[in-house]
Amino acid sequence: MNEYIKLPKTAVVLGNFDGIHKGHMLLIEKAKEIAKEEGVKTAIFTFFPHPSYVLTGKMPVDLIYTNKEKEEIMEKAGIDYYIEFPFNKTTAAITYKEFIEDIVLTKLNAQVVIIGADYRFGSKKQGDYKTLVEYSELYDFDVIVAHKLKIDNKAISSTWIREELKNGNIEMANKLMGRPFIISGKIVTGRQIGRNIGIPTANIIPDHTKILPPLGVYISKVMVEKREYYGITNIGKNPTILDDKNIKIETHIIDFDKEIYGEEMTISLYKSLRPEIKFDSLEKLKNQIEKDIEVTKKYFML
202 near 253, Cβ under 8 Å? Predict the structure, then answer.
């Protein structure tokens, strides 16, 4: 975000938004409600990369959403401005007072600030919702503080979502997020093995920062060329053909036969079908995939 940028009057939500889960969506919906009432714009403010990576000197890994995926979700949610403020050592040194005065009030032009009760900001995390409330009285803006949303008496968090994804509990992760887990990428040319056995696949290479569930086959839907289709998605290393070192994501799109190389595709995972298996022959692999397709059709009641 450049120094000269200044938004029109906003209802702004401050947060990290890795999982953009149900708790986050409550804050977003509150911002939209207030913006409509007050005649202002909605804005989401977050840091990139996540402060924890910069402060520990680590590279971002296991992200639930890539930047592009976040932008698309925010756009679908009807947010006017989605801002990823660059986080670096200079940013880390900003005091909580500077954060409020220069960023929240000047750049974001916030009339209303919506935050989670655990949100911290400013150098050494010295600012919190109480600090914002104090300044709101001085500068005449409103602050709305929300506590964590819970399921089964456990607070929804991005950490919890990551745990479920890593354990292959796709349905639970989806429940926490309020939408299916997605993987996006450009369709690349594979080895054509699927096509040779009559079950072609659309292949993407996941972003290196993206968290992935265990290797295996998943019931899925895909969005390509602005249309949605049903499919089965394999996340794995092709052990039957050639045990690759790199993980590939291959999706057979059901009842689809069109050249889409180079197109952007978004895969939504709904349920784990089975782990990745090394078959004795291509014929046995084909038979299993055909069974997977039938299970998927029954799941979606096709």
Answer: yes
